[in-house]
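Appendix C. Worked example: Lycopene cyclase family protein
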Amino acid sequence: MSRRRDVPDEVSDVVIVGGGASGLSLAQCLTATGSTTVTLVEPPDGPWRPPERTWCYWDDGTGDFDEAVAASWSRLRIHDTDGDRITVDPSPLRYRMLRSTAFERLAHARLARSPGARVLRVTADAVCDTADGAEVRCTAPDGRTLALRARHVFDSRPLRALPPARTHLLQHFRGWFVRTDTDRFDPGIADLMDFRVPQPRHGLAFGYVLPLAPDRALVEYTEFSRTPLTTTAYEAALGHYSRDILKLGTYTVETAEQGVIPMTDARFPRRTGNAVFRIGAAGGATRPATGYTFSAVQRQSRAIAAALRDGRATAPRPYGRRALAMDAVLLRALDTGRIDGPGFFTGLFRRVPPERLLRFLDGGTSPREEWGIGLRTPIGPMLRTAVEVPFLPRRTHPASRIGESRR
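Step 2, the predicted output written as structure tokens:
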């Protein structure tokens, strides 16, 4: 049996637990100036390392990850249930796609150039406060135990269960990276929501197409509902979408990805100890009404780095109170069926300037802009829901482990 050590194996200013989008992003922000020592704890190769994922976001071209961007699009398209198309140009914003492997490679290269950064491939077993900070107890692949001490610990590991919530939906999906025998895609347009797919009895469903070349694309089937589907059901839905709606002809599925994103108005605790903070999806960085996470992770990482430079330890709220309140109303309205999901989202893209709408979806609009957007939604059902939501009890919902969003 391994003996607990009185002297820590490593001492840093900060220990970050988890090497996904949130952990790697925070590590880069903290080490950019060279004034903070950081130990990043990543799981060793094996079942705890997630498969390659896709992350999407939009920005105005001033981001730091251009080297890792797999593709980007200047135009977005929505298809309503009747087949009508809405094509928008959200300039100066562009929709961008990252693959997790490329992002990790870029982040690791930057950390390797920083003298204050260290990456450890070990399993984090426990995180706890100490008299002067916090400690992360780890197990190395060879069975050795390690004690990592720091003034602050930022933990991005997935939660085992969701906090109590008034509404709990899931955004669940399966996607194929397909190659067609002939050119079938327009690489200049991303299909953000295609509601021509059959709609479920509860919630909504849509296709999602990100062209990578005239003959290659990520094609996904997505639902917002209470429970995921079986892989067989996703495959059938994807087959129908690719064959009968997109009419791709002959194609080859090169790889597939599948995931579940919580859509909930739960309150995610961002502090679990005097010196221990939650970040990323586990700290509430997933936008409840859309599932987007990557942009909020970047904002949160920059805010944490700035706070530490000022001598303050905090994990700021990824979204403002107004955004979370609006999301709680929308989730409840969708869950009760008071609003038609496809009609709601296509209506927003028809009536709201696209750049403003994307900023709204990212939590970056002013109260005046949000008021104007609200007037373009079904006012009666939304007002009824807004009056109801504050009086609803928060209940615990059964949930599997939740991780980082694809977005």
